[in-house]
Design a protein that fits this description.
Blueprint: H1 2-22, H2 28-50, E1 56-62, E2 67-71, E3 75-77, E4 83-88, H3 96-99, E5 108-117, E6 120-128, H4 149-157, H5 173-179, E7 186-191, H6 197-211, H7 213-219, E8 221-225, H8 228-234, H9 237-240, E9 246-250, H10 266-272, H11 277-287, E10 296-300, E11 304-308, H12 310-322, H13 327-354, H14 361-372, H15 375-384, H16 390-398, H17 401-407, H18 413-419, H19 429-442, H20 447-474, H21 485-488, H22 491-497, H23 506-512, E12 520-523, H24 531-540, E13 546-550, H25 564-572, E14 576-581, H26 589-602, E15 620-623, H27 629-644, E16 649-653, E17 675-679, E18 688-694, H28 696-701, H29 706-714, E19 717-725, E20 737-738
Parallel strand pairs: 2-4, 7-13, 7-14, 8-9, 8-12, 12-13, 15-19, 15-20, 16-17, 16-18, 18-19
Antiparallel strand pairs: 1-2, 1-5, 3-4, 5-6, 10-11
Helix pairs in contact: 1-2, 5-6, 6-7, 11-17, 11-19, 12-13, 13-14, 16-19, 20-22, 26-29
The structure holds adenosine-5'-triphosphate.
Adenosine-5'-triphosphate (ATP) binds at residues 152, 155-156, 167, 170-172, 175, 191, 193-199, 551, 554, 585-586, 685, 687, 715.
Length: 748
């Protein structure tokens, strides 16, 4: 019945879309409305299509005898006063499906999970919520209080596909509370690896779009993830929930027009991530407001010459700096101040020569005009106060030791050297953030772009007018009573009809506009963001409606977060909320026992989130001869794959050994292949059925946050974990079971 209703709705939306597409008349206003309707129907069809698999996945039997079906979208019966047939999982009345427990049944008698394959029901799991029943699990057992345990465990034990799936059928109570939390203000979600932070962040985006559809469709939602591989890993989750309007970007993509992926030393990124960079950039800009070393001759008018000296430039520079506007916008102030001074200088020359003021206002205006027309003068002015793009400013700065010295006078030489490079345009993610800051500090003169847009519009109208003129000529022989094109259309309207740039969604407009402000911003792996990156993100979200998910113990980036309070204080003081996720769904208990030792070494006070399941396989280690590492690795990969069935395997290696061990530093990595070799940093947020960690000692040694990197690597496994160590094993991994080569996995 529900699928029949889905089909009806789909048919209806397709028919409406087809009718709207056929409407091609009307004025520009009607055209805009038509485009809006087309987008609306197309979105609706996409939503209905996305609901096809697992349309209805739950049923609630209430104590009062009512039944509620829960699914991916809401469906209603038009023949029966729009009685709800299926409730959208995000509707308030569906919340009980996720949060009702035996202890607090909230009017629910029975919760049923319905499994389907295409349009056939393949299984059901029932839970009777009986407050008098004794809990199966003891206090402290992570399985106590799970919702839909059987369905959940089936989902967790399933082979990974290389892409994240939605968890809409098995959201747990503590996750649901975060997903449905109020949209206002900053919400920080802290949770250990595998507690569902990413899943929760994505489902929260879907929930917020459902609940605040109008506002958020207009302003858009921004999702920031750690790297492009991660964004590919999650890119099917929101579409599978019927939501397509979220703009997903890495920090390196935040500055429009630049996709910053170049790699740089961690220390350089750390330096660029400090808030002090605002001062450095300010100084770098002031350094571009130069004075001539000696007076420069300027030819103008009829081969006359006037000398431009440093004092004149200094006073013009002061005037421009005092104007209070940004560098690029202050440039006209500087130029005019120089020209005024030169005019005065010429007038003073005449006065000195003739003893009286010989020039009247008209003469002075003429000299002013001649100076304005002097290409030589503009060339000199361009050198003294150049109009700068953020890219020019940074590329010039990073490729010049002198400019770096001028912008960073108080920094030690080694730090300045960290920023010096040959290719100024090899943008790194940390640079993207600085480009944004530079754009703020330079000020953008958009008058040229506006003039260009107006010119293009005028050209389109002129072309349309030509077309109409030709049509009118052709129509001269036509009966005067007959309607012709020009009776119905003017050039503006015709031009508007032929403006075939498709209407952009909020996400598309936002991606192209640095000054766009979003309705909501979600940051995943938020612990990796530098102080400078937070500054940019806060500019993108003045409403401070944000969800930040992360785990401080996983911070790998040197510029990353070590305290949420510290990073948020400058923007919201202490007006932010913290929620915790406390159960590990990904990593089985055997793997977590190993990772827990590493966590204790990072922070003895940190709490280990209990795993919800065991894998039945003990993690192992194997010592290998360094010279044979590559060969042994290849053999072990083959052996692991043979035992994996359809699952995925990741080989996680030290960043400095990525290329040597068969990985690639380029992003994104191909997640569809069964085996991937990734650096520890690249594996952030991902998961695999089986993980081989290579050379843990190097992982720990190669970064001051090396233990966190190792912790991230170990916690990527959903089933099996092996560690290959070509040297000594770091003592934090002592718990690993030694494995003889080449026997099978160690069974527990
Ligand atoms: N309620 C749930 N139902 C089914 N699967 C879940 C649930 N919660 C989490 N998972 C699964 O657990 C795994 C880990 O989730 P996720 O990647 O969101 O964790 P995370 O906290 O972001 O981890 P990390 O910090 O290590 O990146 C995913 O495969 C996710 O689908």
């Amino acid at each position: 019945m529900l699928y029949r209703r889905l089909d009806d709705q789909r048919k209806q939306a397709s028919a409406q879309l087809a009718t709207t597409l056929r409407e091609n008349g009307g004025n520009p206003q009607a055209r805009v409305e038509r485009d809006a309707s087309v987008a609306l129907y197309a979105d609706r069809i996409a939503q209905l299509d996305a609901a096809e698999n697992g349309l209805c996945f739950g049923r609630l039997d209430l104590a009062d005898g009512q039944r509620r079906y829960i699914g991916r979208i809401g469906l209603f019966d038009p023949a029966d006063e729009y009685r709800p047939l299926l409730m959208d999982w995000r509707a308030p009345a569906a919340a009980a499906f996720y949060v009702a427990t035996a202890a607090a049944p909230d009017g629910v008698r029975r919760r049923r999970h319905i499994r389907t394959s295409r349009r056939t029901v393949t299984g059901i799991d029932d839970e009777v919520l009986d407050p008098s029943a004794v809990d199966r699990y003891g206090a402290g057992d992570p399985r106590r209080g799970l919702t839909g345990e059987t369905t959940l465990l089936a989902a967790l034990n399933a082979d990974r596909t290389g892409r994240m799936r939605d968890i809409v059928t098995t959201i747990q109570a503590e996750q649901d509370e975060i997903i449905r939390a109020d949209a206002h203000g900053v919400l920080v979600v802290q949770g250990g690896p595998g507690t569902g932070k990413t899943a929760v962040a994505l489902h929260r985006a879907a929930y917020l779009l459902y609940t605040h559809r109008e506002r958020l469709t207009r302003r858009g939602v921004l999702l920031v993830g750690p790297n492009t591989t991660f964004l590919r890993y999650i890119d099917q989750v929101l579409p599978s929930l019927g939501e397509t309007g979220v703009l997903a970007q890495t920090v390196g993509q935040l500055y429009p027009g630049v996709d910053a992926r170049a790699v740089e030393p961690a220390e350089a990124a750390e330096l660029k991530g400090r808030l002090d960079m605002v001062e450095v950039l300010t100084a770098a800009i002031r350094d571009r407001q130069e004075l001539p070393d000696e007076a420069v001759p300027i030819r103008y008018g009829n081969d006359e010459v006037v000398w431009l000296d440093a004092a004149t430039c200094a006073s013009a520079r002061q005037r421009a700096r005092d104007s209070g506007v940004r560098h690029n916008l202050a440039r006209p102030v500087f130029c005019q101040a120089v020209i005024d001074a030169l005019v005065r200088q010429v007038a003073a020359g005449f006065t000195a020569e003739f003893g009286i003021d010989v020039l009247d206002a008209g003469d002075l205006a003429e000299i002013n005009r001649e100076l304005q027309d002097s290409p030589e003068l503009w060339e000199v002015l361009d050198g003294l106060w150049p109009e700068l793009t953020p890219q020019q400013l940074l590329a010039d700065l990073f490729t010049s030791a002198e400019r770096l010295a001028a912008a960073m006078p108080d920094y030690p030489d080694e730090q300045r050297a960290l920023l010096l490079r040959e290719d100024g345009e090899a943008w790194t993610p940390a640079d993207a953030v600085l480009l944004d800051e530079a754009a703020e500090l330079l000020g953008e003169d958009t008058s040229a772009e506006r003039a260009q847009a107006e010119r293009e519009h005028a050209e389109r109208v002129a072309y349309a007018q030509d077309v109409l003129n030709i049509m009118e000529l052709d129509a001269e022989e036509v009966d005067p009573d007959e309607l012709i094109a020009t009776d119905l259309l003017d050039a503006e309207e015709l031009a508007a009809r032929h403006d075939d740039t498709p209407p952009m969604t909020a996400a598309e407009r936002a991606a192209a506009d640095r000054t766009w402000t979003f309705g909501h911003v979600i940051v995943d792996e938020a612990q990796e963001l530098s102080a400078m990156a937070w500054r940019v993100l806060m500019r993108r979200c003045p409403s401070r409606s944000m969800t930040l998910v992360g785990d401080l113990a996983q911070t790998g980036d040197l510029a990353g977060v070590t305290s949420w309070a510290q990073v948020l204080h400058p923007y919201v003081a202490d007006r932010w909320r913290l929620r915790r996720l406390t159960v590990n769904y990904r990593t089985p208990s055997e793997v977590m026992a190993v990772a827990a030792d590493v966590l204790a070494a990072i922070d003895p006070a940190a709490e280990v989130m209990p795993s919800v399941r065991d894998a039945g396989v003990r993690p192992w280690r194997l010592r290998v001869d360094p010279a044979e590492l590559a060969d042994r690795l290849a053999e072990l990969v083959a052996a692991e794959l043979a035992g994996l069935g359809g699952g995925r395997l990741a080989v996680l290696v030290p960043t400095s050994r990525i290329t040597e061990l068969g990985g690639s530093v380029d992003q994104p990595t191909d997640l569809d292949s069964q085996v991937v070799v990734l650096g520890v940093g690249q594996a952030k947020g991902l998961e695999f059925d089986s993980v081989l960690v290579v050379d843990p000692a190097r992982i720990v040694a190669e970064s001051p946050r090396g233990l966190s990197d190792l912790y991230v690597a170990l916690t990527r496994a959903t089933q099996r974990l092996g560690v290959l160590h070509p040297g000594e094993l770091p003592p934090v991994l002592d718990r690993l079971e030694p494995r003889d080569y080449p026997v099978g996995a160690v069974r527990s």
